[in-house]
Design brief:
Number of strands: 0
Radius of gyration: 43 Å
Helix content: over 70%
Number of helices: 5
Distance between the termini: 120 Å
Oligomer: single chain
Amino acid sequence: MARSYRLDTPRETRRSLRGNIDPETFGRLSERFARALGTARFLVYMSAFVLSWVLWNTFGPEGLRYDEFPFIFLTLILSLQASYAAPLILLAQNRQADRDRIALNEDRAQNARNIADTEYLTRELASLRIALGEVATRDYLRNELGDIAKEIVEELRKPESDSK
């Protein structure tokens, strides 16, 4: 009998033998790991580790040496470390590239908004300059009012007979 699924009812969660790995947490871990590998401190510690390994297994007491001259176990450890380091570093680089791409897109959008705002303000400034060119200035009004006042005074000084 076929089971019908309803859209308004959530499905039961399926059990899995695989663990649930949060990609964000794993990504942050890989970035921390890659950041640690890229430091001088790591190089100094790794060099000290390898040097002490080689010195102990070369000059240490005969019965306490655990990795003789070709240092196969040391090579295995370093190969294992490199085999995990490379993919983690690539994952960290991919995450950084994604962040850079998002930041670049945001910068482009901000630049486009800035250009649009600048063009708008430029048009507004140009319209204000045009409008100011049509506005009477204070000096112009003073001169015109002064001329009108002189005409009125001259009209008042004329004898009344001239006006009739």
